[in-house]
Amino acid sequence: MRSLLLLAAIGLAAAEDGLSGWLRYAPIKGAKGCHSKLPSAILTLNATEGSPVYTAGQELSQGISGIFGKELELNAAETRHGNGRDTTATVGTVHAYVDSNPDAAARLPELVDDGFYLDVSRGKVLILGQNERGALYGAFHYLSVLAQGNCSDFTLTSNPDAPIRWVNQWDNMQDGGTHGSVERGYGGDSIFFWDGKVRDDLTRAAQYARLLASIGLNAVVANNVNADAKTLTPENMDGLARIADVFRPYGVQLGVSLNFAAPETLGGLSSFDPLDETVINWWQGITDALYKRIPDMAGYLVKANSEGQPGPMTYNRTLAEGANMFAHTLKPYGGIILFRAFVYDHRTLNQTLDWKADRANAAGNYFDGLDDKFEDNVVIQIKNGPIDFQVREPVSPLFSHLVKTGAAIELQVSQEYLGQQAHLVYLAPMWKEILDFDFRVDGKPSRTSDIVGGKRFPRKLGGYAGVVNVGTNTTWLGSHLAMSNLYAYGRLAWDPSATSEGILQEWTKLTFSDDKKVLDVITKLSMESWPAYENYSGNLGIQTLTDILLGHYGPNPASQDGNPWGQWTRADADTIGMDRTVWNGTGFSGQYPPEIAAMYEDVATTPDNLLLWFHHVPYTQVLKSGKTVIQHFYDAHYAGSATAQTFPELWKTLKGRIDDERYEHVLYRLVYQAGHSLVWRDSVNTFYFNKSGIADTGGRVGNHPYRIEAEDMTLAGGYRRYDVSPFEAASGARCIVTADNSTTGTASTVLRDVKTGKYDVAVNYYDMALGNATWELYVGCKRVGRWKGDLEYNLGRAPSPYIDGQTASRVTFRGVKIKKGSTLKIVGRPDGLEPAPVDYISILPEGIVD
Ligand code: GCW
After folding, report:
1. Contact, 128 vs 57, CB < 8 A?
2. What is the separation, in whole angstroms, between the first and last Cα of the chain?
3. Which GO terms of type biological process are on file (predicted)?
4. Confidence (pTM)
5. C-beta separation of 363 from 398 below 8 A
6. Of all atoms in ligand 1, which is nearest to the CA of residue 184?
7. SS3 for 44?
8. Which residues sit opposite 381 in a β-bridge?
9. Is 595 labeled as catalytic in the residue annotation?
10. Of residues 416, 659, 804, 831, which has the active-site annotation?
11. What whole-number distance in Å separates Cα of residue 815 and Cα of residue 193?
12. How many angstroms separate the alpha carbon of residue 193 from the centre of ligand 1?
């Protein structure tokens, strides 16, 4: 402890791997000054070992010891300060407290489930929860205030905005599921499952529950919504019970994803029709068996009739009939079912033949007429947008249709379409826009957050489901900075009125330090990150122009169209955008209440940032900003990637202010992001330049005076030219690759037109999975640098074996001395399936990036 304090005092933090997230309880400056304001002992009321109140006591003792170096007595009989003052931290439920202090009842505030009351007064601390979980939340809140350096007195009553504050992990039971063992996971393997079973060692699961409890999240569905029926074998149910056991001390309940066809595939029945008596009985048996093992199970999550998953519609039953079957089995146990609104058919939509076909309409259509048909323990879980977690979507209109049925909003902490945790994208500002959106139902204020919080339409159940992809990586999400998204998700689910910046600053203080510089830099980076990503990945509501068929990571605008997935842009030589108007298009805008429908129906009143979501317009359409659509594309892509270039430079100003381990880890990613943002910029701009034939008024697109195309160099040894697909993923549409995986290739050129001086030399290459090629860069006889194609080990983003926008990467060597007329040479050594591909080399005068 002393050495830690010493390190803190001299401003250096010990190396950290991120495992404790924002719950580091690290020593703070001025800790000694707080001692007299801290409790000396902890009293836990009615706490049995393993209960949340017991955990609260442990956390308080551990936290105050870590932050202040003060050891507290746990459950001592009498604790008075020298001067007779009571300095006990009492923690428990309101009920337990009032039992021993009946007079207190009148002065305690009203709490709802999970709410807490805190009263901190000169070392005497009262932490009361409406239930045990609430008491633990109160303890975490008190510790968070302390860890942020505030030991003043205060009182606080805090109630959650909504009862459902869940996490959905998309973890596969079997390694090698569709996308590895966490679907859309970029932070390692599942912490819950391995080889078709629940892991023996659930240490990480317990640590995860601790993090989630500290931000008020109360349940986790651990298995993927693309559920494996085998989750429900007796052995696996025993395993699930073990997960629930390690969650319980943190007040986190377990939920289970179900596969609708399980009665047939696992149960051996001849049907999974939700109205069939044998099917109903089978599910009742499963529910009974689960509750026998997990009496406090939260309930179920079901993805049905979506993306190939079975569901009630297979038997011409309604979604309500399907959901209610589970609801009935859960009712005796007080369980609930979250039934997903993400229902659509990815096989039959036809872009060419049907101008009115629209995946965005699916949820509204499928749930039409069902609002009064669901049992009261069914909650419809609706993704924030009508398509799928794109960089910008309007809010799903379904929120305004369900008046009688409980609704939960599904937000994605996993950055599936938003840079996969290899790009920094702080999501709270996006979520805030969504939660604050006003649907104007019946002409009255009707914000999304008030709908899911049960305030706009009186309903007992509703709330939040966050798709999270933590994995075995010690950083949890594969990136330290991405953890601000998990933190923000929890904070907003508790209190959607919290501000993005406020949440971020809290998180930064807890995760790194309260050093003003650190706060300023992380705030600037994070707050600029979503706008920057939107600028370089998809503008004006066209969606993330990523490869939707492979990986969902790098640029590939063409992949959106011409397939039944329905994420269309309908871009042709002259026009772009989806016509979703009622008068001429798919009719989607008519799914909103009248005021909003009218706004989106008309190009003139549709906000620029959703123009192409709702309208099909010429590239020359003039925006409210005065620019044309195409020029906006060009400019935005340049602006977004220019912002990303500032990220590593800003981060470097923090050297020495945070521990080296996390400093280097973050820097590596920000450097990568800066490079990949250029890939995005050039791919998207080249693609639309090629399609529209309209030049960039700034003269930048297609004009790269500092670049040497690898295909124009003199090739020797194994290197040969290669046409890249999609063409826009390579500068000049081509790159070079070695002919096979055993011959070294050499590409060289004489720098006739480069003046003698110092330059930054950037090399764009492709780092594919399934091989670790090596490249060497020479100027004259001097080796400037050597690097390996090993990003797949360091970035968790979807691995790709192709030469495309997912694998295109950049390495930059700074301040390289070059003499006019010297020879520039790249030597590429292939490895495995990676043929040492090179796209181009940029010789950049100081201050220029291209
Ligand atoms: O966005 C798509 C994802 C799938 C996911 C699906 C869903 C779990 O690409 O990986 O499946 O959404 O939300 O069900």
Report:
1. no
2. 49
3. xylan catabolic process
4. 0.97
5. yes
6. 10
7. strand
8. 340, 408
9. no
10. 416
11. 48
12. 19
